[in-house]
């Protein structure tokens, strides 16, 4: 019986970059099939920065992504919690790749056309209530506004201040989410209200169902919000945690950025170039 990627990976040693490099079944399959490369942005392609600052990608990342986009056997897609057009601006690629933004609420296609899922009735009112609460509590300076979402950032704050903001916000926003079509989610550095059922896994599942079963999906991400995407992958797909320190995850592989991330992207470029055979990604 043919061994799937997931079962083969499960037997590897710790899932490190060193183990990944030596895993011949993985690279043989990647070389033999068309690929969709799904890339988270913050914490994966770019380092974390304090809230409100623009986070440029790691040096070398845009060039590697640009070169991968030119391959007929590789479909590159960015998947981010940020707005899609902002991610396109930060990456600085022309043409921009396909991008799913705001955890899958937005889709920017390869022609530059932006679409958004419709917001459920009462959702915007819930976000307005959450913002009004933050302003009344003098927390408004830590907010990030996105279409259909509202985030409270604490990255870079002193531990005591961050803990207070998270505790204070979680109690109030959970109550708001209970009466609006919203969900409260923790991420690495804050809390976020977003539409119920909207997450990065939705974006991955949408692309997966339209793709050939032979196509291998690779998803690289760092945050808790990327776990939904990891879980939406098929048994023959590849989930990669990109993070300086390991954490509990369903991903089988682990890369430390930026050096191992750059090495992995280069390794994909070094694969023999295949022909897409006209298959839709």
From TrEMBL:
Enzyme Commission number: 3.1.3.12
InterPro entries attached to this UniProt entry: HAD-like_sf, HAD_sf, OTSB-like, Trehalose_PPase
TM spans (from-to): none
Organism encoding this protein: Megalodesulfovibrio gigas (strain ATCC 19364 / DSM 1382 / NCIMB 9332 / VKM B-1759)
Catalytic activity field: alpha,alpha-trehalose 6-phosphate + H2O = alpha,alpha-trehalose + phosphate
Cofactor(s) for this UniProt protein: Mg(2+)
Highest taxon in the source lineage: Bacteria
Primary enzyme class: hydrolase
NCBIfam families registered for this protein in UniProt: T6PP
Main function: Removes the phosphate from trehalose 6-phosphate to produce free trehalose.
BP terms from Gene Ontology: trehalose biosynthetic process
Family affiliation: Belongs to the trehalose phosphatase family.
Protein name: Trehalose 6-phosphate phosphatase
Listed Gene3D superfamilies: HAD superfamily/HAD-like, Trehalose-6-phosphate phosphatase related protein, domain 2
Keywords per UniProt: Hydrolase, Magnesium, Metal-binding
One protein family per Pfam: Trehalose_PPase
Pathway named in the protein's UniProt entry: Glycan biosynthesis; trehalose biosynthesis
GO molecular function list: metal ion binding; trehalose-phosphatase activity
């Amino acid at each position: 019986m043919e061994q799937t990627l997931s079962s083969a990976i499960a037997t590897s040693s710790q899932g490190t970059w060193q183990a990944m490099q030596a895993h011949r079944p993985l690279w043989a399959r990647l070389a033999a099939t068309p690929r969709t490369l799904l890339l988270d942005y913050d914490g994966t392609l770019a380092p974390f920065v304090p809230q409100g600052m623009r986070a440029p990608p790691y040096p070398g990342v845009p060039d590697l992504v640009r070169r991968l986009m030119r391959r007929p056997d590789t479909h590159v897609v960015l998947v981010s919690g940020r707005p899609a057009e902002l991610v396109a601006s930060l990456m600085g690629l022309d043409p921009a790749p396909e991008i799913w933004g705001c955890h899958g609420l937005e889709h920017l296609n390869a022609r530059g056309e932006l679409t958004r899922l419709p917001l459920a009735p009462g959702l915007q009112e819930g976000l307005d209530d959450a913002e009004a609460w933050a302003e009344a509590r003098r927390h408004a300076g830590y907010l990030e506004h996105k279409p259909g979402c509202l985030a409270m950032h604490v990255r870079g704050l002193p531990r005591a201040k961050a803990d207070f903001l998270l505790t204070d916000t979680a109690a109030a926003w959970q109550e708001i989410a209970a009466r609006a079509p919203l969900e409260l989610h923790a991420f690495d550095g804050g809390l976020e209200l977003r539409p119920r059922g909207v997450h990065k896994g939705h974006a991955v599942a949408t692309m997966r169902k339209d793709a050939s079963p032979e196509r291998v999906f690779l998803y690289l991400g760092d945050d808790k919000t990327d776990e939904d995407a990891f879980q939406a992958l098929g048994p023959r797909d590849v989930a990669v945690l990109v993070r300086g320190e390991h954490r509990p995850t369903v991903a089988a592989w682990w890369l430390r950025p930026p050096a191992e991330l750059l090495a992995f992207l280069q390794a994909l470029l070094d694969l023999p170039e295949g022909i897409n055979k006209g298959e839709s990604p």
